[in-house]
Predict the 3D structure of the following.
Amino acid sequence: MPASSIRVLVAEDHPDFRRYLISRMQNRAGFHVVCEVADGSEAVQKAQTLRPDLVLLDIGMPGLNGIEAAKKIRSLSPNSKILFISENHASDIVEEALCTGALGYVVKSDAASDLFPAVEAILQGKEFVSNRVAVDLVNCRTHKPTV
């Protein structure tokens, strides 16, 4: 996917961190933030309407949590790549998030170093998980949702 065409939806309920993500994406050549939302239900609606190339998705959001939102986004906008960005690094949560069909998981406190390596990996169809997270992806690989 050429860098010049990467359209990004940012779904994050904390305004300061949402601004941080938007700033990082807009300051990187070839990325365009097409929408920002603060709750999971709105993320699903906007993903269906806008069909972004990349969705940066928090887990703990009002309305609909990020894991449930990701499941819906995968069915409504199957070509959108999903990267979870959350401070939660419990392996069961990470595994559940990745089993939605998302390709990446970045711990918020590691975003400064992990955001763009994760984005580049998932845009190439590869998985990326922050080093801080230990998770066994075997179950996800054998039970990934089909869309």
